Amino acid sequence: MIKRLRGMKDILPEEVLLWQYIEKAAKDLFALFGYGEIRTPILEEGSLFTKSIGESTDIVQKEMYAFKDKGGRHVSMRPEGTAPIVRAYIENNLDKAESLTKLYYIGPMFRSERPQAGRQRQFSQIGVEAIGSDSPYIDAEVIALIKLYLERIGLSGYTIKINTLGCSKDKTNIRKALQKFLKDKTNLLCKDCKARYKKNILRIFDCKEDGCKAVLRTAPKIIDNICSDCKDHFDNVKNALDALKVPYSVDPYIVRGLDYYTRTAFEVTHPNLGAQDAIGAGGRYDNLVRDTGGPKAGACGFALGQDRLILALGKEGSALPALGVYIAVLGEEARREGFRLCNELRSNGVSSQMDYQERSLKAQMRQANKKGSKYVAIIGEDELQKGIIVLRDMSNGTQKEIKKDSFVEEAKKALC
Ligand code: HAM
Question: With pLDDT > 90 as the criterion, what percentage of the chain qualifies?
Fold first, then answer.
C-alpha cells in the first residue's frame, strides 16, 4: 500500500471543520485591520530564500525542498511566506498603489525537518505582512492582532515574548561583541553552538542547552548594544502595547532563525504543545524589500503555525459548528418524507443530515448526539398519519409537534 510521506498529513473532514473555522476567523479579523489576501506560488526561484532567510540558517542549510526543475533551474518549495510576499510586492509594484501595503496569507509551507509532534514537513501558516512603514505602531498593531485573533478562536494561556535586534549596523556590532566575549569560551559551548560561533553567532542566544545558557548569562546583551534610534523604537513599541493592554514580556535572548529581521522580533508560545511550543512568530524586516531589489520600505509581520494552533485548541476544546437538524425516521414512507424534508431544510440554509442505513430509532438518536445536532426531527407512522413532525430540542429533551407544512419555518425560528 502506498502511504503518505513522512512529516505530511491527511486532514480528515472532522478536523477540516476546525481548520475552516480558524481560517474564517482570520479572514474576518484581518479584513477589519485592512489586510487584503494574497496567494503566491508554492514554488519559487531558490535564490529568493537563500538570500533573504540567510545562507547559514538551518532552513537554507538543511531544511529546504530545493531541486533543479526539468529546465535546469534551481527552484524551492516555499519554507515560509515572507520572502515570496516581498517578491510579489516588488514584482507587482504594490508600493506604487499604496504607501502602506497590508497583506495576509494562509497556506502550506515546506521544511524537511525531523518530524515530531507539532513539527511537520508540510505545515500551514496564517500570516500578515505590513510593508511600507517604519512606525512602531505597526509593530504594536501586528502583535495586538495576534492577541485579538487568539481570543477570537478561543485560545488562551499563550505567552508573547518580544525583543529588539537593532538595525543592521547594531547587529554587526553585537556579532563582534559576542565574538570577542566567546573567543576563549567556545570549549564550553555545545556542538551546534560551536558551529554557530563561526557561521551564525547570534543564534547562540536562543540555544536551549544549559551549558550554553550559563555561558551567555554574562554575555553582552543585544539591548545594551543598540543605537538610540532603535532603543527609542523599541520603547515606543512597548508603550503602544501597554496602551492596548497586550500582555507581553521582554526576552533578551530571542533572535529568530531567519536572518532578515531587524529591530522588533517576537515569539508566541503555548504550554499545550511540548517541545515545539511556538504557535507563531514574527518581527520587523526593514531591509528585506530593498535587499530583494525593491524600494526602501520598512515592514513587519507574523506567521502563526496553523497545525500548532489546532493542536493547542484541541486540548482546550473546539468551537465546531453544530448540526442544525438531524432527521430520524421509522419505516420506508417516513424515510421518503425525511429525505424530502432534509433537502428542503438545506435549501433554506439549515444544516441537516439523516440516516441512510435503516438503523433503529435509538441508533439514529445516538448518531444525532454524536454529530452535535441542536434538534432532531422525528418522523414515524403516527406522524405521517397526522401530517405532523416531532421537533426534539437536544439541549433539554423537550418535544413539540409541528405541522408538516410549517416545519421548515419553525425549525429556522428555533435555530436563530
Ligand atoms: P517561523 O518562526 O519560521 O517564522 O515560523 C512561524 C511559525 O510557523 C512557527 O512559530 C510555527 O508555529 C510554525 N512552523 C514553523 N515550522 C513548522 C513546522 N515544521 N511544522 C509545523 N509548524 C511550523 C516565519 O516563517 C516568518 N516568515 C514569520 C514572519 C512573518 N516574520 C515576519 N513576517
Answer: 87
- Residue 221 belongs to a domain: no
Non-local (6+) Cβ contacts of 320 within 8 A are 17, 18, 21, 372
Whether 81 lines ligand 1, by a CB cut-off of 6 Å, is yes
Is 176 inside a domain boundary?
no
Cell of 78: 516555499
Indicate the DSSP class of residue 59.
Answer: I
Q: Is the pLDDT of residue 124 over 70?
A: yes
**Using 50, 70 and 90 to split pLDDT, how confident is the model at 333?**
very high
Give the distance (Å) from ligand 1 centre to CA of residue 303. Answer: 6
- Per-residue pLDDT at 275 exceeds 90: no
137 pLDDT above the threshold of 50: yes
Q: Is 113 in the pocket of ligand 1 (CB under 6 A)?
A: yes
Q: Give the whole-angstrom CA distance, residue 265 versus residue 171.
A: 13
Residue whose CB lies within 8 A of the most ligand 1 atoms, among 22, 52, 80, for a mutation test:
80
Number of domains in the chain: 2
Close Cβ partners of 124 (under 8 Å, ≥ 6 residues apart): 19, 106, 107, 108, 109, 305, 306, 307
Cell numbers found for residue 322: 453544530
pLDDT at 317 over 70: no
Range of the domain at 33: 13-167+226-316
Cell of 4: 503518505
Question: What would the pLDDT profile of 355-405 be if each residue is shown by its tens digit?
Answer: 888 899 999 999 999 888 999 999 999 999 999 999 999 999 999 999 999
Q: What is the CATH number of the domain that holds 31?
A: 3.30.930.10
At CA 225, angle to CA 54 and CA 209, rounded to 5?
60
